[in-house]
Design a protein that fits this description.
The chain has 14 helices and 23 strands. The strands form 6 sheets. Strands 21-22-1-23 form a 4-stranded mixed beta sheet, with helices on one face. The chain is an alpha+beta fold. The termini are close together. Helix 1 runs parallel beside helix 2, helix 1 packs parallel to helix 7 and helix 6 runs parallel beside helix 7. The longest helix has 14 residues. Strand 7 and strand 8 form a beta hairpin. The site of uridine-diphosphate-2(N-acetylglucosaminyl) butyric acid has 26 residues, from helix 1, helix 5, helix 6 and helix 12.
């Protein structure tokens, strides 16, 4: 069993380089199979979710070459076989093979996806959209069988701007006959990254990044390259580390337009930062003001930043509120922060965080990926030693987190028992 041990209260200074975005990379890799030639994806983060997707590609008889952070995928000899549970359940994003295989082969057999346990995560919008494109769906035990004689463009309205459904429907409709319009589409920067990749292959997608995306079906998708955008959630996590413990900590790889909701909250809290080109510099602030935050779809405050943000709010002078509106069970971190000395009460889906509280190290659990990020931040600011278990969650989404933190002055160890 792997654990992360943090000796806290160390000043952080130097530069942290941000990796490619997990939530883009995990969709770009399945999207690559739509090309009938080969594709290269640059700036792929070295996280365990990437490895899980490569295993699926190999099962589908795709050739995969890894060279540092570049993945080259050749799917010209793809064999469309069942994606078994041992592969699909490793991560949420295995479900992008539904859209990609349906789009390419008009037939998919895949077991249930996995992912963080942060509440009910249905995929009804994905399935409803596939049906509107002409597919039939059978669910047998833990397996989806999705099949279409022909895929025909359709007008699809999403009841909620779901990131996953928007991407899956772009993938499924890319080779459909005629025009597909996705109304109430998700607008997250990752959607634009995926659409750019598909357009580089010869797809005809317009409107990505707005709530109406149009896809004109094409017959053939050729070779293409794409670069994964910087990970705005990883950047946010380290920016918060800087606000807690930084002395001119530099975060390199920040696209300001992707992070306005966080940056404006930092300003409201009285935290100063400088941003020049793609580098943000931030220092510890001992006098942070409390704030109220509500998670929303982009460009609102992203749900994935909520759990790490809770740690920052424990260090504000006064009562802060964080309302989680996207998931119904994203509060796994609260119990452990309270064990470390925080004063957080949960009322329905809102955390009421009374600060400022001194945190002290103890044994905690990373109940999911972003709860794990919160535990790391808490460990950095706490006195004494914090021991985090179930860190597989953290390694799914944070590239080289131990090295990145130690390089800027933290005392973090990964131990294996
Ligand atoms: N929803 C449905 N039906 C659907 C699809 C979604 O009811 O068919 C609901 C979900 O239950 C949720 C809401 O709609 O309440 C939003 O879900 P969405 O589909 O947007 O989320 P997702 O695609 O499953 C991605 C990220 C999440 C991130 C969300 C929101 C990936 C692999 N995951 O999930 O990332 O929280 O978008 O931005 O891209 C994380 O990185 O820690 C993480 C959980």
């Amino acid at each position: 069993m792997k654990k992360i041990i943090i000796k806290g209260n160390k000043v952080l200074s130097g530069t942290i380089n941000i990796a490619g975005a997990k939530n883009s990379a995990v969709a770009l890799i399945p999207a690559a199979i739509l090309s009938d030639e080969f594709t290269s994806i640059y700036n792929v983060p070295n996280i365990s979710d990437k490895n899980a997707l490569i295993n699926i590609l190999k099962e589908l008889n795709c050739q995969v070459l890894e060279d540092n952070n570049i993945l080259t995928i050749n799917s010209s000899k793809l064999k469309n076989t069942l994606i078994k549970e041992e592969l699909s359940s490793k991560l949420r994003a295995s479900y992008y093979f539904m859209g990609a295989l349906l789009g390419k082969c008009k037939h998919v057999e895949i077991c249930l996806p996995g992912g963080c346990n942060i509440g009910a995560r249905p995929i009804d919008y994905h399935l409803k959209g596939f049906k509107q494109l002409g597919a039939t769906i059978k669910i047998e035990d833990n397996k989806y069988i999705i099949d279409a004689k022909v895929l025909k463009g359709a007008n699809i309205y999403l009841d909620f701007p779901s990131v996953g459904a928007t991407i899956n429907l772009m993938l499924a409709s890319i080779k459909a006959t005629g025009k597909t319009i996705i109304y109430n589409a998700a607008k997250e920067p990752e959607i634009v990254n995926i659409a750019t990749f598909l357009n580089n292959m010869g797809a005809k997608i317009t409107g990505a990044g707005t709530s109406e995306i149009t896809i004109e079906g094409v017959d053939y998708l050729h070779k293409a390259i794409v670069e994964v955008i910087p990970d705005r959630i990883e950047a946010a996590t380290y920016i918060m580390a800087g606000a807690l413990m930084g002395d001119n900590l530099k975060i390199n790889g920040v696209i300001k337009e992707h992070m306005e909701s966080l940056l404006s909250k930092l300003t409201e809290m009285g935290i100063e930062y400088n941003i020049k080109d793609f580098e943000l510099t931030i220092s510890k602030n001992d006098n942070m003001k409390p704030v109220s935050i509500k998670s929303q779809v982009f460009p609102g405050f992203v749900t994935d930043m909520g759990q790490p943000m809770s740690v920052l709010l424990t260090q504000c002078n006064g009562v802060s509120f964080f309302e989680e509106t996207i998931y119904d069970n994203r509060m796994g971190h609260v119990k452990y922060l309270n064990n470390m000395g925080a004063d957080i009460k949960v009322k329905e889906n809102t955390e009421i965080i009374c600060g400022k509280t001194n945190l002290h190290g103890c044994k905690v659990i990373a109940t999911d990926l972003r709860a794990g990020a919160a535990m790391v931040l808490a460990g950095l600011v706490a006195s004494g030693t914090t021991e985090i278990s179930q860190i597989e969650h953290i390694l799914r989404g944070y590239e080289n987190i131990i090295e990145k933190l130690n390089n800027v002055g933290a005392d973090v160890k990964l131990v294996e028992e």
